[in-house]
Amino acid sequence: MSPRDEIPLLRGQDGEGSVQVHLDPEEKITSAKVFSVYGKGGIGKSTTSSNLSAAFSMLGKRVLQIGCDPKHDSTFTLTGCLVPTVIDILKEVDFHAEELRPEDFVFEGFNGVKCVEAGGPPAGTGCGGYVVGQTVKLLKQHHMLDDTDVVIFDVLGDVVCGGFAAPLQHADRALIVTANDFDSIYAMNRIIAAVQAKSVNYKVRLAGCVANRSKNTDEVDRYCKTVGFNRLAHMPDLDAIRRSRLKKKTLFEMEDAEDVVQVRKEYVRLAETLWAGTDPSAPHPLPDREIFELLGFD
Hints:
Pathway: Porphyrin-containing compound metabolism; bacteriochlorophyll biosynthesis (light-independent)
Family: Belongs to the NifH/BchL/ChlL family.
Strand content: 5-15%
Subunit structure: Homodimer. Protochlorophyllide reductase is composed of three subunits; BchL, BchN and BchB.
Order of helices and strands: EHEHHEEHEEHEHEHHH
Pfam families: Fer4_NifH
CATH topology: Rossmann fold
InterPro entries: NifH/chlL_CS (IPR030655), NifH/frxC (IPR000392), P-loop_NTPase (IPR027417), Protochlorophyllide_ATP-bd (IPR005971)
CATH class: Alpha Beta
């Protein structure tokens, strides 16, 4: 008997041949609008997520942000500190979740935004999908989602494995953060393909992209026009955004300089757009050769 004879046939369960941590139907988030934020590592997903959470809160929405990165700094500017992770707190009680209280793992940030850092397993020892699943399970057990209007998952780097695609099992819409350069757009192209694979079996659909840390948007717009995608917002490369991270604050807590006020307005406009609902986007991601021909050469 071949060792592969013991591998079950998984084709069609979660995209074509996908193997990952699967969602327990009882853990679905049904009481809030759920967004997953993706993008190339270092592109500014946490900054985007936190300021978007702040913008939703300024619109009067009850917001919960879930960081899904072992670095656990997604909610840093909302809380002003690195909060303990769900996985670390579970370890402290030997994974007896019934011993935990909401205040052990949910922390209040700017303007009442609820902040959770899922954390992650040590490198090479487990699947991030398990951590995300345990986090959502805890939140539901403690009824923390009952009075929440918006949930934002801030997800580690690119879609590198089924585990870190796990938030897509909960999301209504996926938002991609990119910059106006080849590497970021190449990563976005891969993420589009991953989200569409999940959308075969899950409710998640693509919302669009945010051009971040970019003076111009010509390359992003050229890609979007080619594949049929939507750019929903543009966040310029401002030193004020960098300073806000250093000050452990969102842009909504910074001084009212003209450039800061303009970016705040763009975040509020993005929040309004997402809350109103975006038509599901169905772009056609490019094969590697074609994206190189479109953006990679003069």
